[in-house]
Amino acid sequence: MDAEDPLRPDGERPNRQLRVVGDATLSPDPDGIWTARVRSRYLDARIAPGAAGRPPPRARTLITVTPRCLRAIASV
Q: Rounded to an integer, what distance in angstroms lies between the CA atom of residue 76 and that of residue 12?
C-alpha cells in the first residue's frame, strides 16, 4: 500500500528509499501493459480524471533490474 506519512514537527516528511545496484535490461512495452499498470496506480482520478485510462503520448521502455545489492535508506 502506498501512503505518505504526515509532516514531522520540523516540517519535513519522513523519507524511506530502497537503493538497488544491479544489472539492467531495457525492453519495449509495445502494448503499454506495464505503463497502464503504473499510471492507474499513481495517477489520482480526483486530480486528473480519466488520465490513467488514456494511452501514453509515446512508446515506453521497461527497465528490469537483476539486483546484486539492496540497501534501505531512511530519514525518520
A: 9
Amino acid at 75: S
41-73 tens-digit pLDDT: 777 667 777 776 677 677 889 999 999 999 987
Rounded CA-CA distance 42/48 in Å is 11
- Identify whether the C-beta of residue 69 lies closer than 8 Å to the C-beta of residue 21: yes
Name which of 35, 24, 37 is nearest 60 in CA terms: 35
Instruction: Extract the C-alpha cell encoding 43.
Output: 495517477
Contact 1, 48 (CB under 8 A): no
Q: Rg of the chain over CA atoms, in angstroms?
A: 16
